[in-house]
Amino acid sequence: MISALVRMCKLIDSFTENPALKNAATIDSKDVAKAKENKANADRDLLAIIKLSSSLRKESERLRISQ
Length: 67
Fold this sequence. Notes:
This protein has 67 residues and is mainly α.
């Protein structure tokens, strides 16, 4: 469970620090490829956060019931 929580922290940090989110309104035309890559990374991180959140919720519920 601890490793999953550490992973969640890293994913949230990666997502919130992503340049695609921090500088969404300031994309230079010469940096379009990098902006697309950043957006793809943000999408990947958000999906991983959602999936991991679900797993953590299920695991915490299982632990709560077992006590």
